[in-house]
Amino acid sequence: MKKRIWFLATVTFLFxxxxxxxxxxxxxxxxxxxxxxxxxxxxxxxxxxxEEVTIVTSWDDKEYKVTTLLTTKWNLQVSTPDAGGPFxxxxxxxxxxxxxxxxxxxxxxxxxxxxxxxxxxxxxIDNAAEEIKNANYPNIRFFSVTKRTSETxxxxxxxxxxxxxxxxxQDFTAIGYFFARKLKEDLDIPIGxxxxxxxxxxxxxxxxxxxxxxxxxxxxxxxxxGENKWAPVKPSILYNAMIYPLQQFKIAGALWYQGxxxxxxxxxxxxxxxxxxxxxxxxxxxxxxxxxVQIAPYTYGKPEQGVLVRDAQRRALKIENTAMVVVSDICxxxxxxxxxxxxxxxxxxxxxLKEQYKSLQAEVYGPLFKEINILGSKVEVSxxxxxxxxxxxxxxxxxxxxxxxxxxxxxxxxxxxxxxxxSAKEVKEPKKVRFAWSNTAxxxxxxxxxxxxxSFISN
Length: 459
Prior knowledge:
11-stranded mixed sheet, 3 domains, alpha/beta
């Protein structure tokens, strides 16, 4: 009932303002906002029929004009400079004027996913009290998209931009905050973070309807996601309400932490996740960076549910301009919400600093499986990002090999020339290898940067 009242109130508001010929902006444009630097950014809204709208940007005192369409909508692009601010944006129609104040120009990132992305300092993170107390960064800005569902694509969201203060940080995505803080420290520019996370959600609800129209298989797989009391499960219902309204807003990239709720239909996750990423990019109109967190080891109800999703996430790296953070070393297998969000945000930020901003030269990835080479009764396993490959312990753990019968046996592992050599007395003619292949595996293979290797299974 409350959702219906909110919808009717919103429609009434928009209708009444248009009848009175007042220009209206979507809620992503408020005081304290951050606009993407060095870009052509869209600014849009509603007005009267054939109304002329004028926008003046204070960073260059340039004037832009546009006339509303028959739909009463208007949309134009303005040029943004390099990072800076605060600025103002004047939006003027024939009967009213909106002045957006304290506007910054910088880097804007979108965060989405389920509860580990949504998780805030108030819900429990390491060193929470100290982190909250010190979260005073006026050049970091937050936008929290209010939770809403819709069976049709929406034009607007609910929310407003806020400066980062101890009060605003404590209820915001902790990973998003730590990511922003690292970027701010290293780049010394304003950072805007938009949070659309919703706990317990499957990837289907964040995926456009067009994906399911094109794939009967994915539509059938979506039916395996059972109802839950924490989140909606109907495909596209959050994409329509919380992602689609933002797709004209220029972003630098997206951060994603999700997958726990897709363990029930893990066999389709690689295809679903890949198509979700490509559909978002298509609808935004450019291939922005998409960095995501591999789900952590956890005691899922059925064997291999979790590791199959982790492996699907590893395989999704074939999509260009994506990157994955592995967190098997900072997890707690009996808690699906690891409290160390600082290192997760830092690892995501380091990837952005290296790949997007070219300001970091250090290794930012853990070892990723590359290939196997059969050497008689032994197997040589090669990895990307393997410099300084080491076992953090007396011996390597969680490696298994299989022969022609397909049965896996625990393998002895040793490192030679930054490759792992495996053997198992039960397997005379090895064919396949798998690593950390269980829901709760906590392997000890790392590279010289201290980053853990991802679980994998060879083809």
